[in-house]
């Protein structure tokens, strides 16, 4: 028997143990490849589920934004400004209630909360602001002049108290009061009026009213539009046509 086994071994025929080991060696790599393929498949499925959830979330957010945008479009054009104004007013009311509950002055608390930088910036804005909007009509110009003059008035409280003692209730005239010619202005008041009038005269002398027409100029136009055209032509070509005009006026033109 041993001789038979040795002979088979010498012929290269594998015995029972050798065959099982080779099958295990062949099955090992195939199982590892299948496990790796399964892992890759699970990874792809996981990534696919994540992408699907992201897509779902994006669609949901997009739908919500579309609804919100539709609501905003249906609102009035100045809704954002009104909303901000209302929120600011609510905050101010709450702040006033808190200050009143603590027994504090709201205006003082508000000024204490303003920083020095904000105060300087607001002061610069006030200085840059030009209240003179130019001439619109005579009524608006008269109103600006009146406001400017009243801002310059500095009341004399001592003189006011003296007048109250002197005239009593007659200082506040009614429709039945007869005070014409009884009031004599003080010398200081007359001096202030004279100084103000002199300032107005000096200011007027710095300006001159533009004359729309020059009475001494030659009339070389037939209407206003033609006059504007001639002015433009003179501005661009006047220096080239000056000699021709002089020859025409002298009658020496060829």
TrEMBL record:
One of its GO terms (cellular component) is Prp19 complex. Its main location: nucleus. Keywords: mRNA processing, mRNA splicing, Nucleus, Spliceosome. Pfam families: SYF2. GO terms for biological process: mRNA splicing, via spliceosome. Residues 1-39 are annotated as: Disordered. Residues 1-14 have a biased composition (Low complexity). Belongs to the SYF2 family. PANTHER family: GCIP-INTERACTING PROTEIN P29, PRE-MRNA-SPLICING FACTOR SYF2. Involved in pre-mRNA splicing as component of the spliceosome. This is Pre-mRNA-splicing factor SYF2. The lineage of its organism: Eukaryota, Metazoa, Chordata, Craniata, Vertebrata.
